[in-house]
Amino acid sequence: MSSSSSRLPGAILSLLALAVVLALPLLAAAPASAAEPRAEVTLPWQDFKTLYDQGQAPKEPPAIAPLDYTLDNATYTGKVVGTGDDAYALVHVTIHGRMLKDNAWASIPLLSTNSALKTAKVDGKDAAIYLTDGFYTLITNQKGAVTAELDVAMALATADGETGFALPLAPSGATAVSFSMDSPDAVTLAVAGGRGVVQTDKAGTHTVDAVIPSLGSLAISWQKQIKEVTVKQESRVYAESQVLVGVSEGFLQGRANVNYTILHNGIDHLRVHVPTDVTVLDVQGPGLRDWKLGTDGNIDVSLNYAALGAYRLTVDYERALAGATQVPLVTALDVARSVTWVGVDARSAVEVVAGTATNAVPVDVRELPAALVGQTDFPVLLGYKSRDASAVIPLEVKTHADVDMLVTLVDTAVIDSLVTQDGRRMTHLQYAVRNNRNQFLRVKLPEGAEVWSASVAGRGVKVGQGDGGVLVPLVRSDASSGALSAFLVDLVYVEKGKELGTAGTERLDLPTVNAPTSQLQWTVYFPENAKIAKKSFEGSIRHVDYYSTAPQLPPNATVTEEDRAAVQNAAEGSADAMGQGVEPVDVQLPLAGQAFYFEKMLALDESLWASFDYKMSKKK
Question: Which of 63, 145, 266, 452 is the most buried (most CB within 10 A)?
Answer without folding.
Answer: 452
